[in-house]
Amino acid sequence: MTDITQIQEPEYDAILRQAVAVIDRTRAMVATAVCSAIGMTHWEIGKLLHDRKVESKHGSGVVNRLSYDLKQRYPQMGVSPRNLWDMKKFYERFCNSDSKLRQAVAVIPWGHILTLMRKFGEDDKAILYYALEITSKGWNRELLSSAISLKMHMRKDELSDNNFEQTLPATQAMFANEVFRSGYNLGFLGVKDPILETELEVRLVEKVKQFLLELGKGFTYIGNQYVLEYNGKRSKVDMLFFHRGLHCLVAIDLKIGEFKPEYAGKMNYYLSLLDRLERREDENRSIGIILCAEKDRVEVELALEDMGKPIGVADYQLIVPQEELKKIVADEMEAFDDELSRNQKSVDEIS
C-alpha cells in the first residue's frame, strides 16, 4: 500500500476531486430517485381523490379525516389537508399533458412543482422549461424564484454574461460586447485529465500565443500572478492583459469549476486595485473576465446585478469541438498522404 506522504500534492488533489465527483454524482442520482418516488406517491394519491370524485365543497370532511389517519401511520410525511388537495390538483393539472412534460415534473421536488403550478397555471411551455432547468442544474427554490422573477423562460437567449451596459459608457459597452465572447475553446492545451487552476494557468502561459489568438485581436499579454500591493496586503491577478481598442487593462481570473457568485466580488476588488494602482489617466476603466468551466446564466446575472465594476463571465472547453476535431484529423490525413506520395516518388526515382 502506497504511503500518502509519497503522493505528490497535485496527484492527491486529483484523487480527491475525482472522489468528490463520484459522491456528488451518486447523491444527485439518489436525490432524483427520491424525488421521483415522492412524485409518484403524490400523483397516485391525487389520482385516487380525483377518481373518487372528492370535491372541495363536500369532500373536506373526507380529506381532513384522511389526513389525520395518514399522519398517525406516517408522521414524517407531508399529508396535511392542504397538501392532499394539492396532490389532487397536481394530478388533474398534468394527467392530460404530453409524456415529456409529465416526465419532467415527475423528478423535481414537490415544492418546486407547487411553485410552477402556482406561477404558470396552464402554461405548459414555461413549466417544461423550468422543470428541465431544475433537473439539469439542481436549482433550489430560491434560485427557481429568482429565475422566474427574471422571466428567464421568455428571455433565456437575452440573459447577459456581463454588466458592461450598466458599468461602461454606451459606445465602449457595445465594443466590449463585440470583443469578449461568452465561451472560449482551450482545446489547444491538450488537457485530458483533471487539472488544477495553477496548472491551467501554467499551460496558458506556456501557450499564451494560442490563448491570445483565441481571445481575439487587440490583446497584449502583460503577465500572470500580477502582484497588486495596497494597504499592506498583496493580491495577485491570475492573468493580466491590455486591449488596444478598448484602451484598458483586462484581468482574467481562472476557475477550474463552475461559476460561484463570490467570484464576482473578488474580481470587483481586483478591478478596484487595478484602477487605483495601475490604470493611467488616459486609460479607460479596467475590465474583468472570470473564466470558468461552467456557468449558470441566472446566477451570473444575479451576481453581477449590483457590481460597480465592468465584469464578464465566460466558460471554456478543454476538448476540441467535434467539427474542429474532424478538420484536424482530415488535415493530418491529407498531410500524411502527401508525405507518403513524396516518399513513394523518391523510392521510384532511386529505383
Describe this entry's structure for a reader.
It is a single chain. Helix 5 packs parallel to helix 7 (141-149). The radius of gyration is 28 Å and the shape is elongated. The model has no long low-confidence stretch (mean pLDDT 83). It has a six-stranded mixed β-sheet with strand order 1-6-5-4-3-2, sandwiched between helices. 58% of the residues lie in helices and 13% in strands. The chain is α/β, with parallel strands linked by helices and 351 residues long. It has helices at residues 9-51, 56-73, 81-94, 99-106, 110-120, 124-137, 141-149, 164-167, 170-179, 197-206, 208-215, 262-277, 297-304, 322-350; strands spanning 183-185, 219-230, 233-243, 248-254, 287-292, 311-317. It contains 14 helices and six strands. The chain has two domains: 4-149, no CATH class; 164-321, Trna Endonuclease, Chain: A, domain 1 (3-Layer(aba) Sandwich).
Based on helices, strands and strand pairing, what is the structural class?
Answer: alpha/beta
What kind of sheet is the major sheet? 6 strands, mixed
**What's the CATH topology label of the largest domain?**
Trna Endonuclease, Chain: A, domain 1
Number of strands: 6
Shape: elongated
Low-confidence stretches: none
State the name of the first-level CATH class of the largest domain.
Answer: Alpha Beta
Pfam family, one: DUF1016_N
Domain YhcG PDDEXK nuclease: 178-327
InterPro entries: PD-DEXK-like_domain, tRNA_endonuc-like_dom_sf, YhcG_C, YhcG_N
Domain YhcG N-terminal: 21-155
